[in-house]
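Why does residue order matter? Because the sequence determines the fold. Keep that principle in mind as you read this record.
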Amino acid sequence: MKKNRWHNDTAFNLSRTDSSMSQSRGFSLIELMVAVVVVAILATIALPSFRQYSVRSNRTVAKTVLSQIAQQQEAWFGDRKGYASRLSLLGYPADALYIDSSGEMRAGTSTSSTYRVSLAAAGTGDFARCSAATASAEAVRLSWVLVAEPQNAQAASDFACGTLCLYSTGQRGATAPVDTDTMFKQCWAR
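Structure:
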């Protein structure tokens, strides 16, 4: 019987490959360092984008809560011919609410709180702070303003808008030092 020449060569090559594979298992230090550098570069590029996304997302949740409370204020006005002076009158658990990134409202602050929402009547400190920053002369004579003040990580990251203000006339504002066009594009348009 004739032996197959290819069969012998293949067997020889496989055994040679097996012996060379047993000598080099794992990664060299240089390969590992290159992989770490690549991951670090990707993280430096992605982390600021993720933080900005998170800040905008939390701001959107706060704007939604402000709009819901404003609708409840209008319903209160329709029933009683006057506005509620406190959030607790509208059925909320406290006069200052702390909201997290999911929109859940709590009576007390926690590490997951992103905004503190309060209702300020004309003549109060919160009303004056919002009015001095963004309100027109018409808004200053209003009866109330809803204030969403950033908390925890949101306060440390949201330099574009700062505190969000929603007035009884529907006028919107923010306390960060930006011009009106920039404020609406960054703070309220998204």
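The mean pLDDT is 79.
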